[in-house]
Design a protein that fits this description.
4-stranded antiparallel beta sheet; 2 helices; single chain; 82 residues; 4 strands; alpha+beta
């Protein structure tokens, strides 16, 4: 069984490969949140890789500002719920 930290590391690696940026991770009260900045242009292959990575998370989304686009994903600590 994968730990939440191992899953977060795998997710960060997938996002790094797909975006070319270094993802940021932080622990939250519910688990781990991973964020990655998106480049200005995404190939169809990169877009698919990002969506595949995000689908592995419990919750995910996209934040857009005037200066950047960021995707985020959250993995919940299931051990705390059991």
């Amino acid at each position: 069984m994968h730990t939440m930290h191992a899953q977060a590391a795998a997710l960060a690696g997938m996002l790094a490969a797909a975006t070319g940026s270094k993802p940021r991770s932080e622990e939250t009260d519910r688990g781990i949140r991973v964020e990655a900045d998106l480049p200005d242009q995404l190939s169809p292959t990169s877009r698919t890789a990002i969506l595949t990575a995000l689908a592995k998370a419990d919750r995910y989304g996209h934040a857009r500002t005037d200066s950047s686009d960021t995707v985020w994903a959250e993995l919940f600590n299931r051990g705390a719920e059991q």
